[in-house]
Amino acid sequence: MTEESPEIGRPNIDVSAAPAEAAADMPLLRIEGVSKNFGSFRAVDRLSLDIGAGEFFALLGPSGCGKTTLLRMLAGFETPDEGRILLGGRDIAPVLPHERPVNMMFQNYALFPHLNVRDNIAFGLKRAGMPRAAIDARVAEMVALVKLDGMEKRKPDQLSGGQKQRVALARSLARRPKVLLLDEPLAALDKKLRDSTQLELMELQRRLGMTFIIVTHDQEEAMTMANRIGVMDAGRLEQVATPRDLYEAPATRWVAGFVGDINLFEGDVIMQEHRRLMVTTRDSDAIVVAAPRQSVAKAAVTVAIRPEKVRLSRRGPALDADHSQSINRLEGVVTDVGYLGGSTVYKVKLDSGAVVRASVANIARLDRDTYGVGERVVAWFTPDDCMVLER
Amino acid sequence: MSARRIFAQPARYAAIAPYVWMVLFFLVPFGFVLKISLSQTAIAQPPYLPVFDFTEGWVAIKAAFAQLSRDNFSLLVSDNLYISSYLRSLVVALTSTLILLLIGYPIAYGMARLPQRWQAIAMMLVIIPFWTSFLIRIYAWINILQHDGLLNKILLALHLVSTPVVWLSTDTAMYIGIVYSYLPFMILPLYATLAKMDPSLLEAASDLGASPLGAFWLVTFPLSLPGVGAGALLCSIPIVGEFVIPDLLAGSSSMMIGQTLWLEFFTNKDWPVAAAAAVALLLLLVPPLLLYDRLQRRQLGGAG
Fold first, then answer.
1. Are the CB atoms for A352 and A282 separated by under 8 Å?
2. Domains of chain A by range and CATH?
3. What is this model's ipTM?
4. Using one digit for the tens of pLDDT, what is the confidence trace for B138-161?
5. CB-CB neighbours of A163 under 10 Å
6. A103: contact with B, CB 8 A cutoff
7. Which residues on A lie below 8 Å from B214 (Cβ)?
């Protein structure tokens, strides 16, 4: 059972309440080699992950990648076929869902339709045997926290989507769980509301100091809110990193393609010197790239570059930059111009037939320096902006 | 304005259909019964007076109206036979409904938890008895319950009893027959509400600290109340007027109102008293229907 102290104040996230045998360096949550099969389908495949107290962690991946199954195992709705899940150093396998100090916010909110807002929020508190006065105080606190004042008597059917989402959040926070699990919490909201709710969730998490684990398929959502992101595919963690590292230093080609937009060139390493690699590709003579921290073992690599790091010019970069000798130049014809407001995406068809996307920020309102369809341009980028991924 | 558009001509006619049905097949016959209940019994064809004869003109009809009286209703209240059979009907209906609920709820709950493929099969099993005539099934129960019937043979073989038990012509036999016959009407509405319940609600309850039993009482049961209400009404109302089952399986010491009606109508040939009893029965059934309607409205009221 959660540590339900009747006094009302700042949430007491007491990680030290973990059993004595827990090692000092044990993270709040440790997932060790966990697998889960549904029939012949392996939803989660020997997955290991540590999540520290106070983290806002996002599990990101396409649908069917096993992220929700992993979350449901943390909540106790599914039992792992292999591996252990340790919460505060304690194996929670034998702990039933209703006894775990973990609460979940459901994707469809799962509000009790026969109970009003107040009783929905108070549900978990009553089960914990909290005194009535303490329940009233906690509910009032939660209602204020999610800005639902005056809605206490309404039934879920009388609430808007955004209000329901808040009730679900308040209900899952009311017991002050050690870990709050959020299953696609914003998926049902429209874009505007989603953006503002993202910020509110982050602010809430910081204020409460609670550990949030969110499951999402929306990379922007994960990047905005989480301090760390675990990217999942086919039941495995492809990479665990900060949003910045995930974007600027993806571990695999799959991650590079899944997170954000990217241009990929397949080629072979022909030379390696001075922290520079020279890669021959079908699409240009050779691309000079910065050598990654770990040396490249195989010759066959993929050079990846984000569209916003590809710059365009009419005459080539020799006049635009100082180190012209190490700048990669790809010549081609503009085939498509997509104006997105903040930026414009150009598709440049190279002479080799490959298409390079370049995203140019529209930094001036009256920018005359745009490129039209059919115009011949040079797409260029520096070696440091390239990533090398082994194939 | 758009609402009016939706109800274009054909749709508006279709909306009238149920009212036409109600008038033709409920209100008009009920008018006949009401009229007969206010008449006097007579040895004639039809066996009551007055008879409205529209060929004799206004004066005759007025005279006929003047002959109508509430005597039959006074008789219903003053004669113990009617009151006791009404009470017995109510007691039998309530008891049977309670037993039906206790047996039907677990069955419906189990069905709703079955894998999708098995749910259809379970549903078939519930409905299949309807393929055999109701009367044949009740006669089968007579066979099972009689002195040297199947039940007694089994009980004797298992040495649970030393002499055959008298089942037939007892209230127990009647309750067995009623519960057996009405069980599908209890199971189906319960199953419908339980099957459409969102399973994530139970997960949420469990996540918030409710034990499985707690989750059932706090979430599943309250949300299944519309099904409980529908099942209880669907069973209790026809059971109040039940005639065949008590006639065939119960003893003759006390009668349900359906049996009393039969007695008045066919044996005593007293149509007016039988009609009055029928009208009174209908009026007695209106309050529970209104109550159910209000409960349902409150449920929907939550939906705003």
1. yes
2. 15-101+177-248 (3.40.50.300), 261-390 (2.40.50.140)
3. 0.80
4. 999 999 999 889 999 999 999 888
5. 17
6. yes
7. 98, 127
